[in-house]
Design a protein that fits this description.
Elements: E1 3-8, H1 14-22, E2 26-30, E3 37-45, E4 48-54, H2 66-78, E5 82-88, H3 92-102, E6 109-114, H4 116-121, E7 124-126, H5 128-135, E8 139-141, H6 150-161, H7 176-189, H8 198-206, H9 210-217, H10 222-240, H11 244-263, E9 264-266, H12 269-284, H13 290-327
Parallel strand pairs: 1-4, 1-5, 5-6, 6-8
Antiparallel strand pairs: 2-3, 3-4, 7-9
Bound molecules: guanosine-5'-diphosphate (GDP) and magnesium ion.
Length: about 325
Amino acid sequence: MKKVALIGNPNCGKSSLFNALTGSRQHVGNWPGVTVEKKTGEMKCNDKVVKIVDLPGIYSLSAYSIDERIARDFIIKEKPDLVVVIVDTTNFERNLYLLTEILAITNKVVLVLNMWDLAVKSGIKVRLDELKEILKVPIVKTVANKGIGVGDLKNIICDAVNGRIEFVVAQSIIGERVQKKINELANFLSCFNLGLPNVYLAVKLVEKDPEVVSYVKQSKYAGEIFERVDNIVAEIEKEYGDDATSIIIAQRYAFVHGVYKEVVEKESTMESKISLSDKVDRVLTNRYLGIPIFLLLLYLTFKLVFGIGNPIADWLNSGMGWLSTHTGD
Ligand code: GDP
Ligand code: MG
């Protein structure tokens, strides 16, 4: 049975989407040995059944938390036929970081821009064609809790698992020179049959990911491998004058920031205020309406001053009169 993994930051709408895709065909359990909830369900593509797995919500594929480890182990070891990366569109930049890490492992990825309703409401515009051009993955916009776009997503999932979508390699996310060194290392690693995707191992070894390091240390070729890794890390660090882990992470963030700048337009509240005051200005300074509006405002000011001012003056007067009669010895 084909497997599809749903992955995304916490609260991006992953469970809503999972429910919408699988309906009542769900199974809830625990991941073996831990109490993190494991939800699997089924979705139909015509007569074929596809397995959908709701992975824990995570921000990145480092292995600092058990949730992160579960999610990344699933993608690396179970090799799903498709990874659906779900993004909260109102938080586009932060949410997109995870995608850059997933794309280092697999290019069989579909990007879901969820919370599209809230994005529209808060003035966020995403240029989808450009985004597609940059990331080279299919993109679907959804409002998961209302089922909007879920049909489109189902169609794309079915097309993908049936081989009707050609997934291509995305443009390099990490800077070209670093990526070249990582590819070199990946090529070298491919001689050793380490059992995990070589590009993933290469990048994680350069990042000194503790779990991947200890995994590779079990290989009988560990000596040779780490000698090569150390050389490459030294080359990168010499060239950039910083440690390799920071360089790679910074380059991913730079990529995400670049994409954000390129494809997302946010009508900020400041801008909308300016455009509102522009509109008001345009009416008030209009050649024909300007003077009448000015006179009207003048008249209203007079009305205000005498209409409200007079009674207040009267109250004050009588108040003062009362005070003077009661305090004057
Ligand atoms: P998860 O943590 O990623 O599993 O997110 P959930 O599916 O639990 O969703 C978090 C909250 O966002 C819930 O209250 C959902 O009803 C709501 N939600 C999910 N998708 C959307 C959406 O597209 N638009 C809006 N407005 N709310 C959504
Ligand atoms: Mg959830």
